[in-house]
Design a protein that fits this description.
The chain is of the alpha/beta class and about 400 residues long. It folds into 3 domains: about 210 residues, 3-Layer(aba) Sandwich (Rossmann fold); about 50 residues, SH3 type barrels (Roll), CATH 2.30.30; about 80 residues, Elongation Factor Tu (Ef-tu), domain 3 (Beta Barrel). The chain is built from 8 helices and 18 strands. Strands 5, 6, 12, 13, 14, 15, 16, 17 and 18 form a 9-stranded antiparallel sheet that branches. A 5-stranded parallel sheet has the order 3-2-1-4-7, sandwiched between helices. Helix 1 packs parallel to helix 2, helix 1 crosses helix 6 and helix 3 runs antiparallel to helix 4. The longest helix has 20 residues. It is globular, with a radius of gyration of 23 Å.
């Protein structure tokens, strides 16, 4: 009998995952990851780990499976929280959920599961796994979008490797969320009607400035509004000697200075803000709401523009360095000067966009057919062929 360790989070998705595996005849063990101790920055009791671990235990007892809690808080602080502080300090916007999957669930947690003698680790993600049998007897694993288009979570797993996928099962990937809730209700699981957790992976719903202020101190600066006819938006497109020169031109961001617009107000730290952000600026008196178009953490200035169509929000091309380029399907990785037509997204829940990948010496350009709003450094771009996520990278 194959042994599977399920990451039981105390939510409905992982509860049904454990149930389905038990029904299929696997030997199932439930493991709850405790990753956070500091309740001072969480908003009331949105996602307290104590309640979640209690719910996970009740589900395990109901299903008749062994259950234990593992404390991964030191690894979580080192690999996720410290990384987040570091990225925000540099004026970049990290994605903790993608990192959490790569560094915690499918690395630290997976190693613990395998030490317990598990053949597989299973999670309650809405995605699917495909297998290609190779002629030499090996297998290549595919990361496929979940059947529920509204809940597809493949983006969050965009940094997984072939080794990690080989040892992973996604039992609810073929189901929709309502079907999962129905199964939980039919089996009288305590999590059947439980709300989905919000906010940071395993921390819960936090006040991000409060969270960041643990390490990044408030620092008063100015908010500048840049007009939509700013000269750098008007620059004429030159004749390009090479395709790489064209890509570099379209990937380049405008640069702003204090004198490029007018001061509209003050903020408590440019490192608390991210591109595309509208809330939290507390500036009135403009015809359309202000959106953050750039942050300068060195000068501690936030640059904004009026309305979500402001040209400062849009760019056609982004770049991923060699160090940050990742292929789930290593067999499809591009060589220098090769290109590939893909569908890509730069954030979770964004509709897939037509794009072309161009591999160059020092990295990879992702060139979109249409300009994209708020391409944000530190976030992940993921690229797909059909419903298969084949690679990803951190936006430079």
């Amino acid at each position: 009998m194959k042994k599977v360790v399920v990451g039981l989070s105390g939510g409905v998705d992982s509860s049904v995952t454990a149930y389905l595996l038990k029904e299929k005849g696997y030997e199932v063990i439930g493991l709850f990851m405790k990753n956070w101790h500091d309740d001072s920055v969480t908003i009331s009791d949105e996602c307290p780990w104590l309640e979640d671990s209690h719910d996970a235990l009740i589900v395990a007892e109901k299903l008749g499976i062994p259950f234990q809690t593992v404390d991964l808080s030191s690894e979580y602080k080192e690999r996720i929280v410290d990384y987040m502080f570091n990225e925000y300090e540099k004026g970049r916007t990290p994605n903790p959920d993608v990192l959490c999957n790569r560094e915690i669930k499918f690395d630290v947690f997976m190693k613990i599961a395998l030490q317990l003698g598990a053949d597989y680790v299973a999670t309650g993600h809405y995605c699917r796994k495909g297998i290609i049998k190779n002629d030499d007897g090996t297998a290549t694993y595919k990361l496929l979008a979940g059947a529920d288009g509204n809940k597809d979570q493949s983006y969050f797993l965009c940094q997984l490797s072939q080794d990690q996928l080989a040892k992973t099962l996604f039992p609810i990937g073929e189901l929709t969320k309502p079907e999962v809730r129905k199964i939980a209700a039919n089996k009288d699981l305590i999590t059947a009607d439980k709300k989905d957790s919000q906010g940071l992976c395993f921390i819960g719903k936090v006040r991000l400035p409060d969270f960041l202020q643990q390490k990044l101190k408030p620092k008063k600066g100015v908010i500048v509004e840049v007009p939509s006819d700013f000269e750098q938006y008007q620059k004429t497109i030159p004749e390009f000697a090479t395709k790489n020169a064209e890509l570099a031109f379209f990937a380049e961001k405008p640069t702003y200075h204090l004198e490029d617009g007018k001061v509209m107000g003050n903020h408590q730290g440019a490192h608390y803000f991210t591109k595309g952000q509208r809330k939290g600026l507390h500036v009135g008196g403009t015809k359309d709401p202000l959106y953050v178009i750039e942050t300068d953490v060195d000068e501690n200035i936030i640059y904004t523009g009026q309305g979500n169509k402001h040209p400062g929000l849009y760019r056609r091309t982004l770049f991923v360095t060699n160090e940050e380029e990742h292929w789930v399907r290593t067999d499809l990785a591009l060589k220098v000067d090769e290109t590939m037509e893909v569908m890509a997204r730069i954030r979770y829940r964004q509709a897939l966009q037509k794009a072309t990948l161009y591999k160059v010496d020092n990295g990879l350009y992702v060139d979109f057919e249409e300009k994209q709003s708020a391409i944000t450094e530190g976030q992940f771009v993921a690229w797909y062929v059909g419903d298969e996520l084949i690679g990803s990278g951190v936006i430079s």
